[in-house]
Amino acid sequence: ARLSRREFAAAVADLDAAITLTPDDAGLYRDRAQARLGLGDFPAAVADLDEAEGLDPAHTRVFFMRAAVHA
User: Fold this and answer.
1) What is the DSSP string of 2-70?
2) Selection from 69, 18, 16 nearest residue 45 by Cα
3) Would the pTM count as exceeding 0.85?
4) Inter-helix orientation angle 26-39/8-21, to 10°
């Protein structure tokens, strides 16, 4: 919910907690990458996208987000 409200710092904190509980959920890393992009933290966003891709190589949204980082 915080991500959709563009509350990026709070979203990162929420997603950090969620990832601690469910570290194998690629969607959580993708969402945290999106929040980090919103904060302008591109290196951390790329690291999250790498993690998401490693967990779910077929996750197409990750590829689109990676393209946005490098655009």
Assistant:
1) TTTTT-HHHHHHHHHHHHHH-TT-HHHHHHHHHHHHHHT-HHHHHHHHHHHHHH-TT-HHHHHHHHHHH
2) 69
3) yes
4) 160
pLDDT digits (tens, 9 = 90+) for 15-50: 999 999 999 999 999 999 999 999 999 999 999 999
The whole-number pLDDT of residue 59 equals: 84
Quickly count: other Cβ atoms within 10 Å of residue 9's Cβ. Answer: 12
Distance CA 56, CA 48 (A): 12
Sign of CA dihedral 6, 38, 31, 16: negative
Is a pLDDT exceeding 80 seen at residue 11?
A: yes
